[in-house]
Amino acid sequence: MGEGVDPTQMCQSLVNKVAQSEQLQTIADPDLLVLFEDWLEELEAEVLVLLKTHGQLGEIELADKLGLSRRGAKFLLSKLKREEK
Predict the structure, then answer these.
(1) Are 66 and 50 in contact (CB under 8 A)?
(2) 54 or 19: which carries more pLDDT confidence?
(3) What ranges in 1-85 are assigned the alpha helix state H?
(4) Contact, 25 vs 62, CB < 8 A?
(5) Which of 6, 47, 64, 83 holds its CA 20 to 30 A away from the CA of 75?
(6) Taking the alpha carbons of 63, 69, 70, 72 in that order, is the dihedral positive or negative?
(7) Rounded to an integer, what distance in angstroms lies between the CA atom of residue 14 and that of residue 43?
(8) 70 backbone φψ class: left, alpha, beta (φ>0; ψ -120 to 50)
(9) ∠ CA(5), CA(12), CA(81), 5° rounding?
(10) Percentage of residues in the chain with pLDDT exceeding 70?
């Protein structure tokens, strides 16, 4: 076979990432988390302005305009879509 994704491996990876996230939250400074959340909200607002100004943008275009990685732009677009913004 050799094709496709191994669901067991995918689930294990997800469990590991959740555990790591929980570990980081226990050691992170609460003030730092607030600053990060504020920054993320400002970034989301910038994305929404760009989308209103330029219409539909792909992740590569958005990454270039904001100086983000393609993965970061994809995350923001997915998050805004999930939140129906």
Answers:
(1) yes
(2) 54
(3) 7-27, 30-54, 59-66, 70-82
(4) no
(5) 6
(6) negative
(7) 26
(8) alpha
(9) 70
(10) 78
List domains and CATH numbers for the chain: 29-85 (1.10.10)
Q: Which two tokens stand for residue 13?
A: 């990876």
Joined tokens for residue 43: 């970034």
DSSP state of 83: T
**With 60 as the cut, is the pLDDT of residue 2 above it?**
no
For the record, the structure tokens of 22 come out as 């929980």
Token pair belonging to 44: 């989301």
Residue 36, token pair as written in the block: 């990060």
Tokens of 58: 């792909």
Q: DSSP code of 4?
A: S
Where is pLDDT greater, at 35 or 32? 35
- Checking if the pLDDT of 49 tops 90, the result is yes
